[in-house]
Amino acid sequence: MVIPFEFATAARILFGCGKLRTLPDLCATFGSSLLLVTGKNKERHQETITALKTNGYAVSHFVVEREPTVELVLNGARVAGETKVHLVVALGGGSVIDAGKAIAALATNNFDFYRHAELVGKGEPLKTAPLPLIAIPTTAGTGAEVTRNAVIGVPDQRLKVSLRSPLMLPRIALIDPELTFSLPPEITASTGMDALTQLIEPFVSERANPVTDALCRNGIQKAAAALPRACCEEDRGAREEMSLASLFGGMALANAGLGAVHGFAAPIGGMYPGMAHGTICAALLPAVMEINIRELQRQQRSDLLERFAEVTQLLTSMKEKSPEAGVAWLRNLTKCLKIPTLKALGVREQDFETICSRAMQASSMKANPVRLGPEQLKEILERAY
Predict the structure, then answer these.
(1) DSSP string, 131-163
(2) CB–CB of 46/53 below 8 Å?
(3) Are 65 and 39 in contact (CB under 8 A)?
(4) Across the chain, what does the average pLDDT equal?
(5) Which residues on neighbouring strands pair with residue 163, listed in sequence order?
(6) How confident is the model at residue 196 (pLDDT cuts 50, 70, 90)?
(7) What sign has the CA pseudo-torsion 87, 11, 100, 123?
């Protein structure tokens, strides 16, 4: 019996090396004036800006220098409103794309962040469709180009929260692996581990469905084989594989949910601004898997334990079969990629209680394959420390 399910993603997906050069033609569908949202390295995108202007587009440029905050996305939305742009193009990493999604949504919804934000606001649905958004990732990790939410920092409350709506799915996701070729090993490792986490967590989620399963099975195999090569060698093929794995992870998480790794990552990221999201996920992933497996064994959940055993097979190219062997494989990978522990990242033990309390309220925790209480959550932090 096939369980009923729903699957939603970006309206159109383009993948391939050199696809960025098609951007001027793609923008024509939406209008002649656009807001280009990028990271702080303006020179990196000068060729794209020139191409857009040469093709007759009025381009306003908005820079995202760090992870987006409420103030930043409201400023961007006001720029979009004042310049009367027809669309938003977000060209950058996960922070840039999240900022672009929030800007596009708030520009058409009265710039009212707290009416629509989860946790700190009313969480009301968007009333008006956002400006059309073209999302173009420059890292292989977040999959934000095909998700329906934007993670935004609220510094005065030391929180990260989401704006979330099916209307926020990008109109076009353009994935050009060439944009990731120059990433340094540290960022490749951090974002790549985020991609791998976002393939494993939806696969073991109780909300998994046949489409997300297919994406995760293929993506886990690709990431497990390609990530070490992408970090340690000049291997363009591995970079292409990681871009595809990241895309699959974004599609999977948007439809099957995540789990305790991301349930922890949001509060830790909010409490320690500037800490790389992917590195937090990488530091937590082996410990979360270990505790999930143990609790499922206690509850004799053979169906979900079989999922973790399959994860091990996918990670190890069928060389290992036990769930515990997958945990060991991931621990070895984090060591090879020089992923720091939570302690080395600067997380303080005195904050564990607050982190656990906030993690239990996180939306990602709802899709974890087993319910975890405060004791199990604290144990995860201790093992990742």
Answers:
(1) PPEEEEESSSS--GGG-SEEEEEEGGGTEEEEE
(2) no
(3) yes
(4) 95
(5) 117, 150
(6) very high
(7) positive
DSSP code, position 169: S
Angle at 291 between CA 203 and CA 364, to 5 degrees: 50
Please determine, for residue 75, whether its predicted confidence score (pLDDT) is greater than 80.
yes
**Tokens of residue 12, six digits:** 């159109």
Can you give the pLDDT at residue 133? 98
DSSP H stretches of helix in 205-322: 210-232, 236-256, 260-271, 277-298, 302-315
CB 344 within 8 A of CB 361: no
Helices (H) and strands (E) in the chain — how many of each?
Answer: 15, 8
Q: Which residues contact 375 (CB under 8 A, 6 or more apart)?
A: none
| 73/34 Cα distance (integer angstroms) | 16
- For 80, 103, 315, 369, the CA distances from 152, given in Å and listed in that order, are 18, 11, 32, 26
Q: Are 228 and 337 in contact (CB under 8 A)?
A: yes
DSSP letter (8 states) at residue 216: H
Tens of pLDDT, residues 254-310:
999 999 999 999 999 999 988 999 999 999 999 999 999 999 999 999 999 999 999
Q: Residue 380: in which H helix or E strand, if any? A: helix 374-383
Residue 231 makes CB contacts below 8 A (sequence gap 6+) with 185, 188, 189, 192, 337
**Cα separation, 135 vs 170, whole angstroms:** 6
Band of residue 248 on the pLDDT scale cut at 50, 70, 90: very high
Determine contact, residues 249/219, Cβ cutoff 8 Å: yes
The CA–CA distances, whole Å, from 344 to 125, 229, 285, 319, 349 equal: 39, 25, 16, 32, 12
Indicate if the alpha-carbon torsion angle 145, 151, 153, 154 is positive or negative: positive
**Residue in the block written with tokens 């033609």:** 25
Residues contacting 193, CB < 8 A, separation 6+: 141, 227, 278, 279, 281, 282, 285, 333, 334, 337, 339
Q: Which residues contact 41 (CB under 8 A, 6 or more apart)?
A: none
**Beta pairing, strands 172-175 & 133-137:** parallel
The model carries a pTM of: 0.95
Q: How far apart are CA 279 and CA 339, in angstroms?
A: 7
